[in-house]
Amino acid sequence: MEKVVQEVTLHVRYAETDAMGIVHHASYIVYFEEGRSNYARQRGSDYASFERSGLYLTVSEVHARYVKPAKYGDQIIVRCWIDEMKSRTLTFAYEIIHADTHETLVTGFSKHICITHEGKVTTIPEQWRRWGDS
Questions:
Q1: What is the pTM of this model?
Q2: Element (H, E) at 106
């Protein structure tokens, strides 16, 4: 089955850059977060609702491969999709590209474990698990 890829376009803000005007490496992790938040919204279930239901998706691992830097004022596109879905864990994959040149800037993934607000590992709700089928 074909993966569902969602995209969100962002402008690089000054606060996300270092003294050279290049996006700081940690900012890409924030872009990943916006990518997966947008993914959930586009699939019909925002993360705030997920939390209100008594669950969290805690990050257990994150990886970023930096290919080319983005700079202050650039417009970037964050692409996000589900790479792997299991009963209690899921992996989001990301590609960040320059909006004008379409060059790949960063690729990566984040792994998540579903827990209750009390910290107990639990299953991902069926509505979200179905996303792994498409």
A1: 0.92
A2: strand 104-116
Q: What is the mean pLDDT of residues 91-107?
A: 98
Q: Where are the domains of the chain?
A: 6-133
Token pair for 33: 């977060």
- Please confirm, yes or no, whether 100 is among the known catalytic residues: no
Domain 6-133 CATH class label: alpha beta
- Mean pLDDT (the chain, rounded): 94
Instruction: Give the number of C-alpha atoms closer than 13 A to the C-alpha of residue 126, restricted to the C-beta side.
Output: 0
Specify which residues 112 forms β-bridges with. 59, 90
pLDDT in tens, 44-57: 888 888 899 999 99
List 119's β-bridge partners, or say none. Answer: none
Out of 18, 46, 83, 100, pick the active-site residue: 18
